[in-house]
Amino acid sequence: MGEVLCISVACGACCGGTGRAISASCPGTPSVSEENHTPELTDFSDVPCPVRALPPQWYHTVQVRRIRSLRARSNSDPLQGKNLGQGLQWQRKGLPFGNASSYLNLEKLGEGSYATVYKGISRINGQLVALKVISMKAEEGVPFTAIREASLLKGLKHANVVLLHDIIQTKETLTFVFEYVHTDLSQYMAQHPGGLLPYNVRLFMFQLLRGLAYIHHQHILHRDLKPQNLLISYLGELKLADFGLARAKSIPSQTYSSEVVTLWYRPPDVLLGATDYSADLDIWGAGCIFIEMLQGYPAFSGVTDVFEQLEKIWSVIGTPTEDSWPGVSLLPHYKTEWLTLYESQPFGSIWDRLARVMGAENLAQKMLKGCPRERISAEDALLHKFFSTLPCQIHQLTDVRSIFTVPGLSLKPEMRDLFFSHQKGSHHKPW
Question: Which residues make up the binding site for ATP (predicted)?
Fold first, then answer.
């Protein structure tokens, strides 16, 4: 399918969701042919961390300058461990951060209502990057979603959260420079229809909950969890992305909009108009994604409006009452004439693959509770028996360490990959 942008963007907010690359160039950026500089590696003499012993392509743009603790090798290595001696003619010594000339556009990846995204490469250290270019209209200035995204991401440093390298501002544009990640979960599932390998689902789900536990500890709600916003590296690293709708929840009584989260992944309390939600909002979306990874199709899909979405949810978890969900009748959009009475169903009878994987049905039930206060937290979910087969070291990693630094842990080939590899007699490729 080709390579995919490292940032998934909400529908209508940025890219149209196709993920297809279109060749494009960036005005004002020097082309490769304009550089007659002798190939040389970047000078890291002024970097505040000991990097001389390691190849510079292992480091993220901002990490090199701002993070003293070393992180596992970046999945944005453009050569993926191959000889760096080729293709460095475009690198320049001493190029500054925050400057458009420090990055080259390689191709256009998508365009939306307020931003265009390009695949690019850093001329500072040779890393592949994703350039999210936001046009600033004179009468409107910088879109508030961009300000929100930048302010939140600047403070987030975690292996399961997309890394913001740099911010470039000109009179006409604001550009976010992100780490480049190979694909996203939506594309990965599309390439492996029928449900993913349970072992891989366990790895993806652990990383999703790990990222959520981190941002929730920072009092940040993502508010737009969906497969398109979960990036997957060539190693299998999962990263939360697109924080355009994210909010910092620092005051418990603060209220927010109920128009958040793509409809299929929106919890029933928000569908009913709740605006005092907390981290439980993201847990519902993560639960829906969990089922989708195992089953191969969305848990609650094919809907056109809020009423139909609620009907699909009630048919599985049961129609709520004041006894089962205290306060539900007080929510703004609660209407008794809308409610068809349903009894709750065993998740395993609705989604059969849940019943066949140890602990999967129980974890899904704990995440997809109608009453938001009853949903399991991301931190507690990481300790669920569903993950008991993973090495214990996985719980002892520092924030910036990938789970794939644990010895013996790696993504396994999906069944489709094994089949085509056998048919063609070729070596396996993850996707």
Answer: 132
What pLDDT digit, counting tens, does each position of 122-168 carry?
Answer: 998 888 999 999 888 755 667 777 888 888 898 899 999 999 999 99
One of 77, 224, 242, 280 is an active-site residue; which one?
Answer: 224
Same domain assignment for residues 217 and 138: no
pLDDT at 347 (0 to 100): 97
pTM of the model: 0.76
**Following DSSP, what letter does each residue of 166-209 receive, concatenated?**
EEEE-SSEEEEEEE--SEEHHHHHHHSTT---HHHHHHHHHHHH
**Domain enclosing residue 317, as ranges:** 185-405
Query: How big, in percent rounded to 5, are the helix, strand and coil portions of the chain?
Result: 30, 15, 55
Do 165 and 191 lie in one domain? The reply is no
The model's pLDDT over 381-392, given as tens digits with 9 standing for 90+, comes to 999 999 999 999
| Model pLDDT, residue 20 | 35
Give catalytic status of residue 399 as yes or no. Answer: no
Number of structural domains found in the chain: 2
Instruction: Determine if residue 82 is labeled as part of a ligand binding site.
Output: no
**pLDDT value at 200 more than 50:** yes
> Domain check: are 223 and 369 in the same one?
yes
